[in-house]
Design brief:
The protein contains 6 helices and no strands. It has one domain. By secondary structure, it is an all-alpha fold. It is globular. 69% of the residues lie in helices and 0% in strands. The longest helix has 30 residues.
């Protein structure tokens, strides 16, 4: 890093950069974990159970949440806005995946694996960058930092519930079988 950057800013950069690798690596494993587990209902809320867009969001959500919990201890007292940073960056990853996926498939008329993987990488990079900027930026409202984690809690509950009982909308439909939820 450039000279003059304090140790806390450097630490945040290292943690967020390492988080990119963690999220991409664990997220990739989550794509296959349900099948590898013999379709275990205990694994289903955390791993991709079908080829729907919603299920693929788990590949970013759960690893990003786990990484946030891992880095919370070492970073929380050294930087600003930890809860706000994570409650902004994680949903941003999900929104980018959905928006970019439907954007390009709307234009091309089909899904392309290389583009799907690229979107996953770009979304994780963008989310971790936004997190870094919030962590190293000016302190935001304490109320905002307190309320923001509710977003993550709601998303976690939705991932569990919609794994077993998804709404019948395109976002939740398996692109291979046409089914919804756990097969």
């Amino acid at each position: 890093m450039r000279s003059g950057v304090d140790a806390d800013t450097r630490a945040a950069a290292v943690w967020e950069g390492t988080g990119v690798l963690f999220i991409l690596g664990i997220g990739s494993v989550l794509h296959f974990l349900f099948e590898w587990s013999g379709n275990s209902p205990l694994v289903a809320p955390f791993a991709t159970v079908n080829e729907s867009v919603w299920e693929h969001l788990k590949m970013a959500f759960w690893p990003a949440l786990v990484w946030a919990l891992i880095e919370r201890g070492p970073l929380n007292r050294r930087i600003n806005n930890f809860d706000l940073a994570k409650s902004t960056s994680i949903p941003l990853m999900l929104l980018l995946i959905v928006g970019l996926y439907y954007g390009y498939t709307g234009i091309l008329g089909e899904s392309v694996l290389f583009l799907d993987i690229t979107i996953f990488v770009v979304a994780v990079l963008a989310g971790q960058y936004v997190s870094y900027r919030l962590l190293t930026g000016d302190e935001r409202s304490p109320l905002l930092n307190t309320v923001a984690p509710i977003i993550i809690i709601v998303l976690a509950v939705l991932f569990v519930v919609f794994t077993f009982s998804p709404p019948h909308y395109a976002l939740f439909q398996d692109s291979v079988t046409g089914g919804f939820g756990v097969p």
